[in-house]
Structure formats: structure tokens, C-alpha cells
Write a sequence for this structure.
């Protein structure tokens, strides 16, 4: 039996549907606009149905297109997982994945990990919790397949690793629950004048010149020590919004007006051949693309 749907044409169709644009899809796939249009037209001819409503300004899915987009997306993910499993079986590895994590994360990063574990239950995923400055060391030594840390922790000359940068958003001021500022929705540098600011030494660049001029700054060896001192009510801290930690529960985060930003960096060795790593990275990229698309549409 010969199938009417070719996988390559299906992937092109899905990309057009996701971006609502033949031009944008062609750019994302690094192919020409004409190739994109011909591929979708050939798919429509093979199926005998129209998949898109087209006019000079918009591209919309027909009812048949909506079905193909929904079910086709699931099919492509299953094919990708199948490829990973076949490679794992053939190469004799890929049934374990070690992720070195610091306190830098984003909500959807955990979502990608959960989706990966659900899709690949045969893969044993281990998490190593380390300080931000230690992540690259574990990845570089091969003790972790992939690491998540602050982008500023990575030297520019780290040539043996690949990196994926993810916007982490604004900075936060962290204060104790008894602090006069704890009920504020937002603070400016002038609001914290004359206070002691504590910061993990690896993140000291996040305290901008205006804050340094208005306050004394104490560098601490770890984030745990930072939160411990803030919890006593003796100091405040500046951290990226993407930091998640159990020992921050006794404190309050308040968005801080600052021009500085920090990104999350996902890093892995260039010579890593673990198929499970490729599967996780694909899900992370899918979530990142979905997030960006939502931000554009909003």
C-alpha cells in the first residue's frame, strides 16, 4: 500500500500552519517559497482536499487542514521518537540522560523534561543539582550530558560546547517577608537606597552602577548563603527572575527596574552522540518556538 502523505511534505505543511505564512515557513526550513508552495499543493492533490484558505493577506486552515495539523503533529513527534529509539538500540546507548541543573530555569523547561520522560519511559533521567559556576565543568568532563546555567557563567572561548540561549526576563529584588518593601508590586533603584545588597559572586554583574552607587554590596559564595542572609532581614538581593529555589520560600520577589538582563544557557558537548539528548533538545526547541510564536501573536 502506497501512502498519500509523504513525511517531508507533511513537515512543510505543519510549518506553514504553525506560522500562518508560506514565506515564514520557507525561511524557517531554509527552502524557497516556491518549493514550499509546490509541496503543499502536491499534498492537497494527493489527499484530494484543500488544506488552506489563501488570500493576499492571510493563510488559514480549512477543516481538513485542522485535522491534518492536529494528527500530523502527533505523527511527526512519534516518528521522531521512533528514530531516537532505533538509534539508541542500534548504537547501544542513549538509555540514560544526565542533566546538570543550577537554580536557573524557566517554567517550560520543566515541562520539556516531563514531556520527554513521558515519551521516552525507557530512558533514565538523572538530575545533578550544582551551583551555577560548576555546570560547565560537569558537562565538559562528561559527567553530565547537558547543563542549565546562567549565560554569563560561560566563557566566550568555550569552543567544545554548543549552547542554546533562552531569555530569562527581568531582574528581581528579594527581601524578607518582614521587609517594608515586601508588599510592593515593583521597585526602582531609588527604593532600596542605603541598604546592604548581597549577591552570588558569579552574578555580581547584575547589580548595575546605579544600585552600586546607592548601596553597599556584599558578594556571597553561593545562592543558598544569599537567601539565608536575606531571610534574616539584614539585606536584600538581586537575582534573575528565572531562579527557582526552595530556600527562597521565606523571602519575597519584587520585579526590579533595571536595564540589565540575564539569559538561561543550555549547554552540551559538541562531540556528544547520545540520541536521548537530541530528543530532549528537540522538545526544548519546540517549547521555545511555541513561546516566541505566542509572544508575537499577543
Amino acid at each position: 500500500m502506497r501512502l498519500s502523505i509523504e513525511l517531508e511534505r507533511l513537515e512543510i505543511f505543519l510549518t506553514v500552519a504553525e506560522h500562518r505564512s508560506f514565506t515564514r515557513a520557507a525561511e524557517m526550513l531554509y527552502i524557497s517559497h516556491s518549493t514550499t508552495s509546490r509541496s503543499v499543493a502536491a499534498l492537497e492533490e494527493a489527499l484530494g482536499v484543500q488544506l488552506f484558505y489563501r488570500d493576499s493577506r492571510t493563510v488559514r486552515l480549512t477543516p481538513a487542514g485542522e485535522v491534518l495539523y492536529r494528527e500530523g503533529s502527533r505523527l511527526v513527534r512519534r516518528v521522531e521518537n521512533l528514530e531516537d529509539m532505533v538509534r539508541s538500540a542500534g548504537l547501544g546507548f542513549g538509555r540514560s540522560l544526565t542533566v546538570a541543573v543550577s537554580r536557573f530555569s524557566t517554567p517550560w523547561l520543566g515541562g520539556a523534561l516531563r514531556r520527554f520522560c513521558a515519551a521516552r519511559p525507557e530512558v533514565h533521567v538523572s538530575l545533578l543539582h550544582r551551583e551555577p559556576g560548576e555546570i560547565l565543568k560537569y558537562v565538559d568532563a562528561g559527567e553530565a550530558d547537558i547543563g542549565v546555567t546562567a549565560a554569563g557563567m560561560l566563557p566566550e572561548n568555550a569552543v567544545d560546547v554548543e549552547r542554546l540561549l533562552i531569555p530569562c526576563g527581568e531582574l528581581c529584588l528579594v527581601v524578607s517577608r518582614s521587609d517594608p518593601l515586601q508588599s510592593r508590586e515593583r521597585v526602582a533603584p531609588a527604593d532600596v537606597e542605603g541598604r546592604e545588597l548581597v549577591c552570588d559572586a558569579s552574578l555580581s554583574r547584575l547589580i548595575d552602577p546605579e544600585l552600586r552607587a546607592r548601596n553597599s554590596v556584599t558578594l556571597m559564595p553561593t545562592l543558598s548563603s544569599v537567601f539565608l542572609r536575606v531571610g534574616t532581614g539584614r539585606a536584600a538581593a538581586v537575582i534573575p527572575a528565572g531562579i527557582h529555589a526552595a530556600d527562597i520560600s521565606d523571602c519575597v520577589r519584587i520585579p526590579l527596574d533595571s536595564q540589565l538582563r540575564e539569559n538561561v544557557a543550555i549547554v552540551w558537548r559538541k562531540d556528544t552522540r547520545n540520541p536521548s539528548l537530541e530528543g530532549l533538545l528537540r522538545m526544548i526547541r519546540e517549547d521555545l518556538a511555541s513561546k516566541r510564536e505566542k509572544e508575537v501573536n499577543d
Notes: Residues 7-88 form a domain with the Arc Repressor Mutant, subunit A fold (CATH 1.10.10.10).
